[in-house]
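Residues determine shape. We examine one folded chain.
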Amino acid sequence: MFLSGSAALAIASGLITGCETTPASGRNPALSPAQRAEAAPAQTDEFSKLGYRLEWRAFPTMLPGETIERVDLFGDVLAAQESAGVVSVIETRSGQVRWSEQVAGRLTKFVGILRDEKTPDRLIVSSETEAYFYDIATGTLRARQKFAQIVSSAPVQVGDILVYGCLNGQVLGHLMLNGFRQWGAGLTGTITASPLELSTGRVAVVSSTGDFAIIDGTTGLSQGRGRMFAGPAEGVEIASNGAVTVVASEDQSLYAFGGDAATPIWRKRTDAPLKFTPTIHDGRVYCDLGADGLSCLDAASGKPIWNNPKVSGTVVALRNSRLLVFNGFTAWTLDPAKGVIIDQVDLKNTSMLKPDAFIDGNLYAVSPSGIITKFSPR
């Protein structure tokens, strides 16, 4: 199902004959863009307090009863995928929907989207069993490649290889040139956190049982191993500045690994399993540590710098020299030196915040009902 920008809006409005415009079993009918906008106002006053002004609102194609699951930014376009598998490619300059496509059936599980670094006119949409290669300008499906095993994480690209974590704890190096398995590496448990490229070709991977590995993304050879008592919760990602890689673990600890990954260079124990992704910037680690709230630690030593028990979530950006923190409901701006709250707003219509640059970039707010709003620094 390929749809142009105008047709994408039509299906969202329930205007295309044969599309699902009435409730399926247990599902609400699809809302038009106007209905979606009315149900989720842009909250311009709240974002103004955070340092942003409204640019545009976009309406990716949504089937009845579905919600936005992921949004990825690729410079001139962004890709949004809803829970039934429909991908919409939207121009970041204007908010126009360029094309939409239901990649596979509703029951298909998808793990990630990326833009091919070597062939930038290709968008790669990954399900747990295969990769779909689309023309980023037109939405034409160019190729499909099946994986050698079931994958469970978003991929990272190293040259012509896509590196995935798998349900059985394996790390898969998938060669895009022929669609075959290039290499495999074994961890225990499952891998849901996205592999992360640390430097040219070196990839960090962590499993649910606490295996941590640095792998050469071209050859699959181990560059170092480490061990924790548990890995990150599902939905929690790892963070790195290249020299230090940080894992927020369910074993009630925040770990930092160095280049050899043999043992953690420091560990911060907490009162509960960690549920938010950490952030590293300018030699500091920011992470929600449970009862301590959002905390700032020295990246090299783990030494505490400050904590604020009134703030929870993930640091998503630095705007006007203030940290922007979001927990899925509430956003704060903080003084990065002391962690003091400057502003606090309720973002009841926002489930996700995605900046296109960490420092003073544009900010994309995503509502569960299927609106993407672009805010620019004001």
The radius of gyration is 21 Å. Residues 1-26 have pLDDT under 50 and may be disordered. The CA atoms of residues 72 and 79 lie 5 Å apart.
